[in-house]
Amino acid sequence: AIELAKKDDYLIKLIAEVSPDNLQVSPRLVRRGSSYDVSGTLNMATIKTDLADDVSVIGLGAGSLETASAMLTDLISILKNKN
């Protein structure tokens, strides 16, 4: 898979699929330049809907600043709820 990815302009990305009765996370080959071609701390999600077809969003995921911000928000919430 690694050689195929290098040769044919693909990337290997960790892809999660969720359905009402299944959850699966596995490495997959995705084409460079596709909507799944995100890097750094960006994450991408696609939701398949009956009315709006596929809806995709891309945004910041894990990273040092994002993690620190989430931890600070959680700590403030804990302190507010403690009093």
Secondary-structure topology with pairs:
Elements (H helix, E strand, L loop, with lengths): L1 H6 L2 E10 L2 E10 L10 E7 L5 E7 L3 H19 L1
Antiparallel strand pairs: 1-2, 3-4
Walk me through the structure:
This protein has 83 residues and is α+β, with helices and mostly antiparallel strands. The chain contains two helices and four strands. It has one domain (2-82). It is 30% helix and 41% strand. Strand 3 and strand 4 form a beta hairpin.
- How would you write the strand order of the largest sheet? 1-2
In total, the number of domains comes to 1
Q: From N to C, what is the helix and strand string?
A: HEEEEH
Helix content: 25-40%
Class based on secondary structure composition and strand pairing:
alpha+beta
The Rg value, from CA coordinates, equals 17 Å
Low-confidence segments? none
Separation, N- and C-terminal Cα atoms: 54 Å
Features:
83 residues; two-stranded antiparallel ribbon; 41% strand; 30% helix; alpha+beta; 4 strands
Summed up, what is this model?
The protein is an alpha+beta fold and 83 residues long. Helices cover 30% and strands 41% of the residues.
